[in-house]
Structures are given as structure tokens and as C-alpha cells.
Design brief:
The chain crosses the membrane at residues 7-25, 31-51. The protein has three helices and six strands, in the order ααββββββα. With 131 residues, the protein is α+β, with helices and mostly antiparallel strands. It folds into two domains: 3-54; 57-129, PH-domain like (Roll). The two termini are 39 Å apart.
């Protein structure tokens, strides 16, 4: 879901919840306000946690002898530069969800957004560019 789609869904959910609460309130059930407040607080917290990571990505860029690994996770961007002649790729173990791009003194975890079957394709795609 994109952030705008999520916002529309959230607004619809809040309106529905408030409509139901208003119906019960008009029927004389005043305690519904407490439960509605708890429900909307929980939903809001859940959506805020989701939104924090909705735009996360990893990007690998190769230009000549330069390999850039750019990661944007939880509104924090990190860019690590490697030399393609000296960089190594570590193959993921069976239990690992990521693999590493390594060079002397530098190591970056890559692949947290890939499925297991996509690791081999990405590594095979990168190998020809690495020395």
C-alpha cells in the first residue's frame, strides 16, 4: 500500500468506527467511548509503525569501478561505496535472510527485501561487474 492509499483506508476506518460508536452512544451506551478511543489508538499506532517502513528500500548502483549500496530504512539513509575490483559477495547461508557486500574494513548487509529464490539471481547479476 502506498502512503496515500493507507491514509484513505485509515480515514475510512476511523469514520466507520466513529459512526458505530455514535450509534451506540445514541442508544445510551456511554462506555463505548472508552472502547472506541482504545481501538482508534491501537489502530493509529499500528499504522504509524507500518508507515515508518513503507518506503524502505535497498539499491545497488555500479558505475565503472564504483559500486554504491544505498539503503533507506526507517527514514535513515546510508550510502556505502566500494571498489568493484576488491569487493566480495558472501553467499547467504540457508538460515540467513541477507547476504553481505564486503571489502577491507567495510561490510554491508543487502537483500532484506528479497525472497530466498531471488538471492542467487542478484548475485549472478552482480558477479560480471566485480573484479
Amino acid at each position: 500500500m502506498t502512503p496515500s492509499q493507507l491514509l484513505k483506508f485509515y480515514i475510512a476506518l476511523v469514520c466507520l468506527s466513529l459512526t458505530v460508536a455514535t450509534g451506540f452512544l445514541l442508544a445510551g451506551v456511554k462506555i463505548i467511548l472508552i472502547f472506541t478511543a482504545i481501538e482508534l489508538t491501537a489502530v493509529t499506532v499500528g499504522f504509524l509503525i507500518y508507515c515508518r517502513h513503507a518506503l524502505d528500500y535497498e539499491e545497488i548502483e555500479i558505475s565503472g569501478t564504483r559500486l554504491l549500496v544505498r539503503k533507506f530504512i526507517a527514514y535513515k539513509e546510508s550510502v556505502t561505496e566500494f571498489n568493484t575490483r576488491w569487493v566480495r559477495l558472501s553467499h547467504p547461508e540457508e538460515h540467513q535472510k541477507v547476504f553481505f557486500v564486503e571489502q577491507t574494513g567495510q561490510r554491508v548487509e543487502v537483500g532484506q527485501f528479497l525472497r530466498r529464490e531471488q538471492f542467487k539471481n542478484l548475485i549472478a547479476e552482480l558477479k560480471p561487474y566485480l573484479g
